[in-house]
Amino acid sequence: MSEVNVNVNVHHLTRVEGHGDITVDVKNGEIVKCEWSVVEAPRFFEAMLRGRPYYEASHVTSRICGICSVGHATASLRATETALGVEISEQTELLRKLLFHGEMIDSHVLHVYMLVAPDFLGVGSVLPLASSHPEVVMRALRIKKLAGDLCAMIAGRHTHPIAMTVGGFTHLPKIKGLLAMRARLVAAREDMDETMALLKTLPWPAFERETEYVSLQKDDEYAFIDGRVATTDGFTYDLADYRKVTNEYMVPQSTAKYAKHNRDSYMVGALARFNNNYDQLHPKAKAAAEELGMAPIVTNSFLNSGAQAIEMVHCIEDAIRLIDELVDRGLQEEPLYEFQGKGGEGVGSCDVPRGILFHNYVIDDDGLIQGANCIIPTNQNHANIQADMEFLVPQILDQPQEKIRHTLEMLVRAYDPCISCSTHLLNVEFV
Hints:
Layout: E1 6-10, E2 20-27, E3 30-38, H1 45-49, H2 57-61, H3 69-84, H4 90-120, H5 126-132, H6 134-155, E4 164-165, E5 168-169, H7 175-200, E6 212-217, E7 228-231, E8 236-237, H8 243-246, E9 266-267, H9 270-277, H10 283-291, H11 304-329, E10 344-352, E11 355-363, E12 369-375, H12 377-392, H13 401-414, H14 419-422
Parallel strand pairs: 6-9
Antiparallel strand pairs: 1-2, 2-3, 4-5, 6-7, 7-8, 10-11, 11-12
């Protein structure tokens, strides 16, 4: 091992959103450098919000991410509603949960099938996968089309939703449309069975590293919207205390902030939710977890993709339940919120596909946003990615360099990073 020399320089990592680099330099068996670098330019969404009226916030912030538009819009609306003291109706809550399931499925199927699966099936991207495994790609497209249609039915469109507003929705789906969507969700169970059958055959890398897992949590449901912040280290916080969890800081190699809580790093995302909230999963999702041999606490970061697939099963089943409840209740037009001339400060949080997301707004008595803070899931994961790399590299130095490079790429991809979204602030000191 003392004679091992390795030089890995990935610039930029593929099959992720945004630009990130992997650098590993080993000389005579000694690790000289092992670094995950974020090289994106900051985007200043928080600055864009200042001085804007409260009702524009969700439309602006939905542009942070083209994959998690609904998640950002929902977190934004919850922050705004908390600041202004707006109580949402049960109908709005149910519709938002249903909409959220659509986005969760849409994002997870993209990652599992089109970004991760090529690594295991011996191809470089989804394009050759369409030739080598056409049935896999067609299944992914069916699921993705279903999820996109679900989002569009409720929000007007998935990317940059237009029907979501403070306190409710500007238009409602039709009962006929909900029933048709229910039938499609039931039919999708077969595709999910095939998804689990596929994932069972994949050679997941052997990797175990204990860390802290952070997510939203509720007593009575698998939490995606609102709740409390919980960690596997036994901490719980109200949403207003989110900064006690995130503790953001800067590192030289990154234009994105890092975060830490009880340890030097923590993980957010599907695996964190699985570890914190397993008991609230739908029985079919628990059965899927058993099929994959997963039970909390899972400490293999590569299995974040497995947790995503399990969540897809949960979301499909819970979406069916929500549609049944909405149909039984009937849909009623509800008055839209009118500003009352009193501002405030509010925090909204959602557990979006890549992990827990926070929006924090200060709104004045004219309804204008005076300050904003958005903490993105991926920037909370950067430190954990770095720690995973540092832990993994010594274990795989006996492998060929190309295998080392590929394994490290797979590790970062497992987090499903949205790198561009994480570069939200850069401090510059002029001297």
